[in-house]
Design a protein that fits this description.
With about 270 residues, the chain is an all-alpha fold. It is built from 11 helices and no strands. The C terminus is likely disordered.
Length: about 270
């Protein structure tokens, strides 16, 4: 239990340090680290399912969602600018990167400084109430991943048949899988854990998340094309690059799901057997 509380305190200190550092140096690297730290806490707070966390944990979760929402536009701007540079496209974003950074930090300052009391209460709740009772040691993240993979296979099949390639369903599953990955990283060294994920499950999860992340970035750019500033010829070239990229990633995800072993309830094989 002491190791669990120590890990939770480490997560808390990382979040508060990054939050303060962004104000002094709002770099791309710090922004991505801050968002990862927010998602770490989101994953840990989602562990007690189907039980409900206390009101303090719910309030903290709401703050974390607000931080991610406020930083999303800034993170997306960095991703889009990098993609445009790599593909030598003479297009510019419809908003100022510098202005977005200022707005992000101003909004972040309104969050109660550090949330120290809430972090402390959540640490006690998760460490004493949750793990001391042994509930945390019984959680089977492999089962959660299997359910998410089955939903992913269904959503991916629909995405393939949709000419507009609506990413909303896949995005929701991606968030679920990211939480599972964060939970596994947190719980992998919990003493007495009964059902750790296998190396194959971890590898499949990491691979799928990497491809879904690429698909998310390309979909974001595709939705932003009409707002970009530049010549129409450049926009058409961008559309072509994005369409090819999305189809390629879609096939790669299907290949990953198709290679999942028969004994694994998730993936395309399980879906086809139903």
């Amino acid at each position: 239990m002491k190791g669990t509380s120590r890990k939770l305190r480490s997560f808390r200190n990382e979040w508060t340090d990054l939050r303060d550092s962004i104000g002094r140096n709002p770099s791309r690297q710090l922004l991505h680290r801050f968002r990862r730290s927010c998602r770490k806490w989101q994953a840990v707070l989602a562990l007690p399912e189907p039980g409900k966390p206390g009101p303090v944990c719910r309030r903290l979760g709401k703050d974390l969602r607000r931080c991610l929402r406020r930083s999303r536009r800034l993170r997306n701007a960095d991703v889009m600018q990098k993609f445009l540079r790599e593909n030598n496209l003479d297009l510019t974003l419809p908003f100022s990167d510098k202005k977005e950074r200022i707005l992000f930090w101003r909004s972040l300052r309104k969050t109660r400084p550090g949330r120290k009391k809430d972090f402390r209460k959540c640490t006690k709740y998760l460490g004493l109430e949750f793990f001391e009772k042994g509930i945390g040691n019984k959680i089977d993240l492999g089962d959660r991943q299997k359910d998410a993979f089955e939903d992913l296979a269904k959503a991916h099949a629909i995405w393939n048949q949709d000419p507009a390639h609506d990413f909303s369903s896949l995005h929701r599953i991606r968030i679920r899988l990211k939480k599972i990955a964060g939970q596994e990283a947190f719980m992998e060294d919990i003493p007495g854990r009964r059902t750790p994920m296998s190396e194959r499950q971890k590898s499949d999860l990491k691979n799928v998340l990497r491809h879904l992340g690429k698909m998310s970035d390309l979909t974001l750019l595709k939705e932003t094309v009409p707002e970009l500033k530049g010549k129409e010829e450049e926009k058409e070239r961008l559309k072509h690059i994005l369409s090819e990229g999305l189809m390629k990633i879609g096939k790669e995800i299907e290949a990953i799901l198709g290679k999942i072993p028969d004994e694994h309830p998730g993936g395309m094989k399980a879906l086809n057997r139903k």
